[in-house]
Amino acid sequence: MTPADFKTIRESLGLSAQWLADAVGVDQRTVRRWEDGALPLRTDVVALLTQLDKQMDADVTDELARITAELAAGQDATDVDQLLASLTPQSWPTTTVPRVDTDVDDPSTTGRPLPAAFYRAAAGRLRCALDGRLRITYTAATGS
After folding, report:
1. Which residue ranges form the domains of the chain, and what is each CATH number?
2. Model's pTM, two decimal places?
3. Rounded Cα distance, 119 and 56, in Å
């Protein structure tokens, strides 16, 4: 993995350099130096980012399957793209995301909650998979 790959994946996961630094027990400057290529990437940190990327992909795939099944239920059409195209924006599928970090109650494999931005990034991937036909709302809880 190149430093550019590393930074791109981190950013696509909605993870700040500070969050990653805290998760792996280093200073934020170390993360920046990995991303600049000034320091070699640590294997365990690359594995963590790769694992989180796979986790997000799996979560998006599961949510897409749930939405697809929900859309196809009771419909004669088996073409999900056709079903999506027939929806008005008011009837698009909806997913909820946390607005702020204090709205997150799901600890990650790192033992600490992922930031709210991780879930918003996953919703963005889901929205792309649905050709933009997804309503994204915030969870009812609001952080301070």
Report:
1. 3-138 (1.10.3100.10)
2. 0.86
3. 8
